[in-house]
Design a protein that fits this description.
Layout (H helix, E strand, L loop, with lengths): L1 H4 L6 E8 L4 H4 L6 H9 L13 E2 L1 H5 L8 E10 L5 E9 L3 E2 L14 H5 L3 E3 L27 E3 L2 E7 L8 H17 L4 E6 L6 H13 L4 E4 L8 H12 L11 H24 L8 H8 L3 H10 L1 H38 L3 H4 L4 H9 L4 H4 E2 L20 E2 L6 H33 L9 H5 L6 H5 L2 H29 L15 H11 L3 H4 L5 H16 L13 H26 L5 E8 L3 H11 L5 E4 L2 E11 L5 H5 L8 E6 L2 H21 L3 H4 L3 E5 L6 H19 L3 E2 L12 H21 L14 E7 L7 H9 L4 E3 L7 E8 L2 E11 H10 L4 E7 L3 H12 L7 E7 L4 H4 L1 H16 L3 E6 L12 H9 L1 H12 L50 H4 L2 E3 L5 E3 L8 H6 L21 H12 L37 E6 L9 E6 L5 H6 L22 H10 L6 H15 L28 E3 H9 L47 H13 L13 H13 L12 H14 L10 H8 L4 H12 L4 H19 L1 H4 ...
Parallel strand pairs: 1-4, 1-8, 2-5, 8-9, 9-10, 11-12, 13-15, 13-16, 16-17, 17-18, 19-22, 19-23, 23-24, 24-25
Antiparallel strand pairs: 3-4, 6-7, 14-15, 20-21, 21-22, 25-30, 26-27, 28-29
Length: 1503
Amino acid sequence: MMAKNKEPRPPSYTVSVVGLSGTEKDKGNCGVGKSCLCNRFVRSKADEYYPEHTSVLSTIDFGGRVVNNDHFLYWGDITQNGEDGVECKIHVIEQTEFIDDQTFLPHRSTNLQPYIKRAAASKLQSAEKLMYICTDQLGLEQDFEQKQMPEGKLNVDGFLLCIDVSQGCNRKFDDQLKFVNNLFVQLSKSKKPVIIAATKCDECVDHYLREVQAFASNKKNLLVVETSARFNVNIETCFTALVQMLDKTRGKPKIIPYLDAYKTQRQLVVTATDKFEKLVQTVRDYHATWKTVSNKLKNHPDYEEYINLEGTRKARNTFSKHIEQLKQEHIRKRREEYISTLPRAFNTLLPDLEEIEHLNWLEALKLMEKRADFQLCFVVLEKTPWDETDHIDKINDRRIPFDLLSTLEAEKVYQNHVQHLISEKRRIEMKEKFKKTLEKIQFISPGQPWEEVMCFVMEDEAFKYITEADSKEVYGRHQREIVEKAKEEFQEMLFEHSELFYDLDLNATPSSDKMSEIHTVLSEEPRYKALQKLAPDRESLLLKHIGFVYHPTKETCLSGQYCTDIKVENLLATSLLEMDHNRVRLYHDSTNIDKVNLFILGKDGLAQELANEIRTQSTDDEYALDGKIYELDLRPVDAKSPYILSQLWTAAFKPHGCFCVFNSIESLSFIGEFIGKIRTEASQIRKDKYMTNLPFTLILANQRDSISKNLPILRHQGQQLANKLQCPFVDVPTGTYPRKFNESQIKQALRGVLESVKHNLDVVSPVPINKDVSEADLRIVMCAMCGDPFSVDLILSPFLDSHSCSAAQAGQNNSLMLDKIIGEKRRRIQITILSYHSSIGVRKDELVHGYILVYSAKRKASMGMLRAFLSEVQDTIPVQLVAVTDSQADFFENEAIKELMTEGEHIATEITAKFTALYSLSQYHRQTEVFTLFFSDVLEKKNMIENSYLSDNTRESTHQSEDVFLPSPRDCFPYNNYPDSDDDTEAPPPYSPIGDDVQLLPTPSDRSRYRLDLEGNEYPVHSTPNCHDHERNHKVPPPIKPKPVVPKTNVKKLDPNLLKTIEAGIGKNPRKQTSRVPLAHPEDMDSSDNYVEPLDTIFKQKGYSDEIYVVPDDSQNRIIKIRNSFVNNTQGDEENGFSDRTSKGHGERRPSKYKYKSKTLFSKAKSYYRRTHSDASDDEAFTTSKTKRKGRHRGSEEDPLLSPVETWKGGIDNPAITSDQEVDDKKIKKKTHKVKEDKKQKKKTKTFNPPTRRNWESNYFGMPLQDLVTAEKPIPLFVEKCVEFIEDTGLCTEGLYRVSGNKTDQDNIQKQFDQDHNINLASMEVTVNAVAGALKAFFADLPDPLIPYSLHPELLEAAKIPDKTERFHALKEIVKKFHPVNYDVFRYVITHLNRVSQQNKINLMTADNLSICFWPTLMRPDFENREFLSTTKIHQSVVETFIQQCQFFFYNGEIVETANTVAPPPTSNPGQLVESMVPLQLPPPLQPQLIQPQLQTDPLGII
């Protein structure tokens, strides 16, 4: 049963493949293809097919289990399905003959028969014989599949006779055919079927094949199958046909010729290849690997089919080709991208056609490599070419490989770039030409359409050249420009007509009549008509302006972020914060005042005498003062000491104060010069912040022999110098003393020093103190217009550069506080800086003691805004007008500026205000002295202003407060000695923007503060301090007449010659002399009207009386008590609510407005307000002004009187333009007061604190030049580093050496150099200007100037030589007299400056400009010396000559011809100095006294 159920086993056949075998002699170099035929049939997959099989084996391999010492191979079996579906198993045996690799003879085996007989054997036996796979299997059987021959024996069922029909290898086909014939004979004996396989038909030789076919025909029609194992053609057919012969039940196979079978097979391969390639093309990343892709595709049928037919190796090759194609495609795209990017790179690196137009490609490449942006556009690879590096994978790196430029494509792009630049240049030229054509067409108006203009330019060459789009673009740009310009001019016009808008209250709405008036006035303006075609825009601008006028805020300001209020707040926020930090550092430096260091300066042994006197009064250098012991360290220095400046300030000795003692005009002159030098040096180099506050005290030594003759002059000149320098003056006490110095003098001076130190500590206290505004003595409002062409730093620098400047009350971001000595006391002044639009509300609602009105002399709108604002200011409030421009030369060169400056000064003259011009290119505006006289005037009118303000606010009230501000307790200090700001005492600028015509004589405004004594000397008007000072400050002192001066019996008359000089000077002055004491002896004076006539003008309740103390100049020092009785208010009292504090000249009137005092202001108002004001009302308004001003206005003339001492005694406070007409007017209304002679009660003026530059100790800077150089290195290392840095990085910097660098950076450069002389300035990231400033500071720090003082006179004389060649040779000989060290450094510096001047077209620094900036540093001038001031221009021209003729002076070169060579100035006689100093050469706006005499007595023209 079981046997029946078993499935029948498929039939099994054994086929023996035979053919020519044997040694190489028998078969040639290669076999006939038996092994390949078997391999392809048994293992048909391409990866399992091995084309190479060898029959030469070693003995070991022959004895292995695969060969097993037999000459046949067992290839295994394969199960085959027939066409009828019947399976059969075919075992394949290959009969061969193995050759020994040693003897090259057949191996000996168990069967010793020859191959022909062995091959015909039908029974084969070999125990444990393994299946053969390939040659590599031999000896490594364990690494391959191990399959044994079934049962170790097989019976052969048929033979497959292989005949090679190819050309063969060293084998004759006839020999093969003969061998085959013999073999066939043996095979026939076995009675087994035989089929002939014609092998290697892919290399078939046709006649060989025909012979095989003939052979088969002769042998009982043997079947011949044409095969090719390489291409797998008809291999299976051979075995199938043989099986069919064995099993007749199977269908007879169809034998296909080789060519037909090959085509069929190749078609199958091609189809599989196409499918595989499509499969491979799905891979898009050329970074993909075969391993990754094959793992993904191994189960895909198309992949498997191709692998079976062609094999993995071909599949990998196909994949590699595809990947390479992807890579090349990527490289191609990158190359195209680079080529497309090249034009942009060329535009970046080679934009200038003139530079590259004539360069070839290689030269252009070299030029590109030098560009700073080269690395941004190109990358230079270490390995080339670029497409074989990993750069192709850097997708994010868009830089072009530089080696790509070596291709022809890149060169072609470059040529196209050049051509594009040429055409673009032509196109731009034609567009600009067309633009100029449009600009020449006058009738093109804003808003005019292109169509209306096009017909007028049709024939224009440029229009024809450019495209229509370009034409429209150019016209659109032209329209935008003219529209924008028209709108700006329209807006500027609105500001110029500010009087038309600023007549209504804030937050008001203009009426229709007002709008009609505005349009009527503006319609006459061309700038109004210019926007005719843009009427909606014009109306919008007008409404926007009106909205801003009536609702002015920072947010609505038409200047936006450039609003003055915003700029001021930002500047104050940063400046005051930095100032606080500096004060904290200064506070910590000023610690111990138990020990006082005093520097004593004198001449002819005076300093040592004073030091001896102080030591006499001390005990072991300890001095008792006011119950406290102070250790004194005295440092007396005589004027003759050559190292006087270096001794003043050393690391071991830092003085708390300086006593300057004098006993003659000569010694006083020396003191003035010395202090001027110190202050000049301190302001230029700023050695230490502490030195800025160093107090000076002038001490007059007693003269026992000639007290009656010289003492009054010395006292007057000493006091005058002290006032000028803002420092205390210690006079000789009254009485006779045996010694030169009195104990009271020393104590008074020492107290002053201690008070100054104490005040400095209070000023720089790190504890922030926000004092209430009510504590400010004065409140000043500075107004500036938004959009003016100057920085707010220019107008704020006089305050911010002062050490006494501090922040105002919290919340007042636009205010600052200034501590300044005004009159006899230190005052706190609140400065509020506002735009004009913000000031309107302040003007109407808040108490203001004075206005500083700033305007730009370059802008009419600025003057218009000033006029509109000033017109509504009450005429009781002092005003200072400030015109701002670049330089004094603008007045000469620009008529518009000249007109505006003249108008400003004219208005100031009309309203008796002050007028000042500030120049942005000058440094003088950084001194608060610009406003000193104005502050004094404001203080004088303070009470009147406050009462006027109080009256306006409480006009309906019957009760008035006596004082507006509470008195400040500090006004009662018995001793007021405070250091003034840096600016109040800063020396005049080293040079003037125009030249050397500096006014050295005191102006009338300055002289009004002095009166003449009996001997013709001017005395400052001041009084003795007492505890009631605050009452006299805040109450109105009645005008008094001084009692007759009682002559002292011991006063001697002046030298008659001096007296005649003074009288002659006064006689030349046409001013009234009633304001001065007559030039007569005391006994000749009339005393009939010399008593006080008090008028108390402070309004009080009826019946109220008070006592006010006044201090007339009484020689007996008596205090006169005056009772003031108040009666019922007059009509004026009732009308104004108060009684005017001024003298009868002012009358009892209500305050008016400035527009009624100025013809200029009123004429403007009249032209605008003609719709609302009649002519009669205008005349009436002016009538009142006329009656009050009649006879008061007069011109001022220069007083030719010169003080017998130096120029600083003339009261020169401001070289800027200043007009002080009102001070002169006061001389008519007030009687002068004589100075009290009692110096014990004299007020102390503030001390001078020269600013310092360096605030650290240095072993390098400030040292003598000889200590900083060696024979090997004659140039100081610091100078060398600075010059190299400047020449390497900033030679073309605009304004080099003129534009100031950052002060902190300059200090850091020197500090870092102090620590490490090898520093690299480039690594410090500092600006060129900072390095230039540090270089100038180095020379300013030197103990002696680089150009020695001893050679200054010789240089001066040589510069006056008329002949240029002779002058240059004389200067050259003087330079040779320099110390060798100075000569080397001077040559180095001048050579550097010459290089700088050579770049003047870029840096704008000509030799002239450089000499202006450098000559004060190189020559260290004494600006307090009158003779030196008169020669400043000569010294500057000498330095300019050195710079221009550098090659001639130092390198034996030729004289260079220059266009602006400065001719030698005419020689001046020192005796004629007065005439040369009279400022007649300056224009009227710059010297007001030249205009005022030409004005009518009544400037308004009413009479």
